[in-house]
Here is the input.
Amino acid sequence: MIRDTKLWNLYLAPGSDSIDVMAYCPLEDHSLFVSTIPLDTDTSSRVTAIEEAVYDNPLLLNEFNRVTVISRCDERAILPTSVAADSELASDIVEEMTGCSGRQLIVDDLPLLDTSICHLIDSDIYNFLTRTFNGARFIHRLSALTRYFHGTHRGAGSLTSHVNLRRGSLDIVLYHSDKLLLANTYRWVEPTDALYFIAATRSTFGIDRRSPVVLSGDRDVREELTPLLRQYLPTVMPAVFPAAMFRAGGQTAMNAPTDLIVMPLCE
Here is the structure.
C-alpha cells in the first residue's frame, strides 16, 4: 500500500481489545488511512496480544518517518509543570492517586498552560513498543485533545466546553485563557449520564449556560446527544473539522477517532 514508509508518519492507539492505527504522508493529499486491528483477548497477557497484532501486520514493521503512540489509559494525573519536572515526585504522586505501581511514567508537558499530564503505561508494553518502533513517542489522549482545543480556540474569551464523544465514554476539556480548568474522561451508559457530566462540570466552574458546548468525536453519538443537550444548553455545536486533515484523508479522516486525527496538528 505504501511505496516508501520513511516519508510517512504512523500513529498507534492500543486499547483493551484492539489497536487503532493511522498513517499518512504529510507530502501527499488523500494519503491517510485508518484501520483497527483486533487483539486476541484469549492470549496469556495484553502485551502478548499487542505483540502478535503488530507482527501479524508487516506494514507496521517498516521504518517510518515518525511513530507516535497514543495512550488512552485511566492511570494519570494533571500536575503543575514545575512538579512534573521532578520525575520521582511525579511518579509517586501518580502512583498514589491511581493505586498503580511498577509502571513506566510518561510526562506530557503543555507549555502554554503551564501544566503536565502524567500517565502510566505497563512497562512490558512500553518496552516492546520502544524496541519495535525506533524513536517512538508517547502521548496521552487528553494531552492531544487539550493541545488541539487550546491551540485552535485560544483567546476566544469564553469558557467553551470541549466534549469529545465515544460510545460509552466522553472527554471534557475546559480552560480559561491560558489556565487549564479540567481535562478528564467520564464513562456513561445512558445519554442522560453524558448530559449530567457535561452540566455538572460546567456548574462546578460556574460557567454561564449561554457559553458554548462544542462536540467532537463519534458522529452517531453526537447526533444522539445534541437534541438532549439543547433542551438545557442553548449553544451546542459541532466542532469544526480541521481542514489540513480533511485534505489528508477526506471522509476517512472524518470517521477516524478524534484523538488520532488531531495528533498531527499538535506535534
Q: What stands out?
A: The first strand starts at residue 9 and ends at 14. The chain is about 35% helix and 30% strand.
